[in-house]
Structure formats: structure tokens, C-alpha cells
Design a protein that fits this description.
Length: 426
């Protein structure tokens, strides 16, 4: 699918999308809950739908959605088949593999698209320590595992992704018969672990966080027939693109973002403040717009995205309109996303006249010289498609995005929401 973005001003009120990070964790917790779970404000992105399919294959039943909620019935992990497919969700594969290993049934775990090229050596190293037999494809998908997982004191490397730890914590929480400790070295994306712990606490698990260096998982009594309600948060990752759109192309109000959220991408607020956008942060809404008339415009900023690497694309779209050179730390976190995002951003924004330099772990974005419309490609990466669309709102000329449907992975309503704000999207 090809989408064109005409230079446009945006205005109005819009609700942020549902957080797939929150939704996927809720799905996993609902599977592990031996009873009924009502998930309110459920997501409908491709990653969300993949998570719902996975928990059904692992034994849950799901009632049809009604009145903005779904009902999940489960008696724990009881696989209905011998294979699960996590689609293109990195969180999905890394979270559900340890959970699937709670069963003693052999299970093949697969994915699609870029997930097939992402490194999964973590499982080869850790699963045998937990009495899980594993056969992998040289550290790539598909993998075949046979449990059941036996929680033990272990040490893991958290430098590649916090998502592996999320899966282990949830599996340990369900299976621990005595207190066990997971020690972690080099943990990245700590706020995402905060989100995991928040969901686990809501579902009755007992995990002690020792300054992100170790996590003690204490046993809990799994009550059968327990009813739990969980409301999925608004998504700061998708909401970041809306906020940047307001900062560079008009004035909008974004509703549905919890300023007390543990989501890592809430840090977008710091960049928006530092660059001089006109922003008003309120309890239930955020008003965001261009700098005041008579000001010198948006200014370059310095931002450390090591714990929130998904913010790189909206930050680059913002930096393109900031006067001066913006520095963003954490480039090493971008290599194993849906695309190699550091190189992809450099290539596609280069087509739009924005020079991006990569220096070790630093990205330098030279902004303020004007953005011009161009024919760009998403590289099958949802966040690249959205970043190019936002950048195109105030570009000189039309921006054409090829493989624009990549947004379905996380934010299928994105183009529709831009149109609701007045953008000319075709």
C-alpha cells in the first residue's frame, strides 16, 4: 500500500491508541490466571491479535469483544496444539516462549517477517539451565522446546532486550514453589520491566525488585476461578507520533495518555519540553502545538533513548524541524528492530533532505534547514512509516510512503487519526 501526505496543518482532539506493550502483557497474565479475566480497552494491532491467538493456542478461550472489553477464560497453560506463531512481535516471542515452556508438551515456536532474523541465542543459553530442552535454528526461529520449566536461581544478560526478562518473570511467578532469584547484568529498557511488574502485581504475583540488579520471585497461591479486571493503558509509543505532529504542524489535544504510566516512551515529554514546543500537560489530556508566535522556533535538544529506543523515529521527525543539531543516545539498541532503524532513519530522512550522522552510540540529526517531500519506504517497519508521515506534514511538497501498511503492527488507525486532525492523507 502507498500513502501520500500533503503538507497540512493539524488541529483538534484525538485519543491515543491502545498500548500493545500493556495489552500483550495482559494477554499473558490472563492465560496464566486460572479463572476469568476481563480485559478492558483491548488493542487491535497486529501484535495484539497475535498475542490473542497465541494464548488461545496455549489453552485460553476468548469471548467475542463487546462494549470495549474481551473476556478470557483459562485454566493455565494447556496447549491445544504443537505450534504457536508470534507474528512479527519481538515481545511476543520473548515473553511467550518461557510461558509456553511451563507445559511438558513439545512446542514449536515460530514467527514471521523480520522476527525470523532476530537473534534468539538467549533461549539456547538459558533454557537448558531451567530443564527445558531446546532445538533452535542457529540462534534464530523457529525453535522447538520441551518443558516443564523449573524455576531456579540464574543470572541473565539484559543488555540485548528486557523482553527476555519479562517472559522469565511471568513464567517464574506462575511456577515458583519457593523464592527464586533472577540476577540481571546490563539491563536495558528498565521502564518496560516496571510495566511488567505492574501487570504482575495487578494479577496477584509477588516480585521484589532489587534496584534492577536482581528480582526475587516469591511463590503465591494460584486461586482457581479468580475474576480479574485489567484496563489496557493508552500507548505512549504511538501517542509520541501524535504529540510530535502537534509540535511541528499545528495545535492538538491528545487524550488517553496516563502521565503516571510506567511506559518508557512517556519520556517523549522531556524532548518536547526541551525543544521549546508549546505544551500543557494535564491529568487527562496533553495540549501540544507550535512555539509561540515571535519565538525563534523549535531548538535542537539532547536526549538519551537507551531505555526507550522506540522513540528514535518520532524524535528524528521532531529533530528535523529543530534549529541546530540534535543528539540522541542509544543507537546500539536499534540494530535488531523491524529494520536496522539507525541506518533506515538515515536513509529515508536523507531522501527528505535531513542529514543524519551515526557516531558509535550517538545519532546526530541536523535540523532546521527545511524538509522536502520525497518518495520513501517503510522497510516494513511501522515506526519508520509513521515517522515519515509526521515529517511530511510540513514538508515542501508531497511525501509518498511505500509499504505504508506496516503501521498495522502497532497503530492501524494512524492515518485515519491524522485525517481526523485535518491532515491531507491519501
Amino acid at each position: 500500500m502507498t500513502v501520500t501526505i500533503q503538507p497540512s496543518a493539524v488541529s483538534g482532539i484525538i485519543s491515543a491508541p491502545t498500548s500493545k506493550s500493556s495489552m500483550q502483557r495482559a494477554c499473558a497474565a490472563a492465560l496464566l490466571n486460572k479463572g476469568k479475566t476481563i480485559i478492558e480497552n483491548p488493542g487491535k494491532s497486529n501484535d495484539d491479535l497475535a498475542a490473542l491467538e497465541v494464548i488461545q493456542l496455549l489453552g485460553a478461550t476468548i469471548a467475542p469483544a463487546a462494549d470495549n472489553y474481551i473476556t478470557v477464560d483459562s485454566n493455565g497453560v494447556q496447549p491445544a496444539g504443537s505450534e504457536i506463531n508470534c507474528g512479527e512481535s519481538g515481545l511476543g516471542i520473548r515473553m511467550f516462549a518461557p510461558i509456553a515452556a511451563l507445559s511438558q508438551n513439545p512446542i514449536r515456536i515460530n514467527g514471521t517477517g523480520s522476527l525470523l532474523t532476530r537473534p534468539m541465542n538467549f533461549f539456547d543459553d538459558i533454557f537448558p539451565q531451567l530443564d527445558i530442552a531446546i532445538q533452535s535454528n542457529n540462534g534464530k526461529l523457529p525453535i522447538e522446546i520441551t518443558g516443564p520449566l523449573q524455576p531456579k536461581d540464574i543470572t541473565i544478560d539484559g543488555s540485548l532486550s528486557s523482553q527476555f526478562l519479562t517472559g522469565l518473570l511471568m513464567a517464574y511467578g506462575n511456577a515458583a514453589s519457593e523464592s527464586v532469584t533472577i540476577k540481571v547484568t546490563g539491563l536495558k529498557s528498565k521502564p518496560y520491566i516496571d510495566l511488567t511488574l505492574q501487570v504482575m502485581h495487578h494479577f496477584g504475583y509477588d516480585v521484589v525488585n532489587n534496584n534492577y540488579e536482581s528480582f526475587v520471585v516469591n511463590p503465591v497461591r494460584n486461586e482457581t476461578g479468580k475474576l480479574i479486571k485489567y484496563t489496557v493503558e493508552g500507548d505512549w509509543s504511538g501517542g509520541a507520533f501524535l504529540l510530535v505532529a502537534g509540535a511541528v504542524a499545528g495545535k492538538i489535544t491528545v487524550e488517553g495518555l496516563d502521565t503516571h504510566s510506567t511506559q518508557a516512551d512517556k519520556a517523549i515529554l522531556k524532548a518536547l519540553i526541551d525543544c521549546g514546543s508549546s505544551i500543557s500537560i494535564q491529568e487527562k489530556q496533553i495540549e501540544i502545538g507550535l512555539p509561540a508566535t515571535g519565538s525563534s522556533g523549535l531548538k535542537a535538544f539532547h536526549f538519551d533513548a537507551s531505555d526507550c529506543p522506540d522513540l528514535f523515529p518520532p524524535l528524528v521527525a521532531l529533530a528535523a524541524y529543530c534549529n541546530g543539531t540534535t543528539a540522541i543516545e542509544g543507537v546500539s539498541r536499534l540494530a535488531h528492530k523491524e529494520s536496522n532503524r539507525g541506518l533506515t532513519l538515515q536513509e529515508e530522512f536523507g531522501k527528505m533532505g535531513i542529514k543524519i550522522t551515526l557516531q558509535d552510540d550517538l545519532m546526530l540529526v541536523e535540523g532546521g534547514h527545511g524538509v522536502h517531500g520525497a518518495s520513501v519506504h517503510s522497510h516494513h517497519d511501522h515506526r519508520i512509516a509513521m515517522a515519515c508521515a509526521v515529517a511530511g506534514l510540513k514538508a515542501r511538497g508531497v511525501t509518498t510512503i511505500k509499504d505504508a501498511e506496516a503501521i498495522d503492527k502497532s497503530y492501524p488507525d494512524f492515518y485515519q487519526h491524522l485525517m481526523q486532525l485535518g491532515a491531507a492523507v491519501n
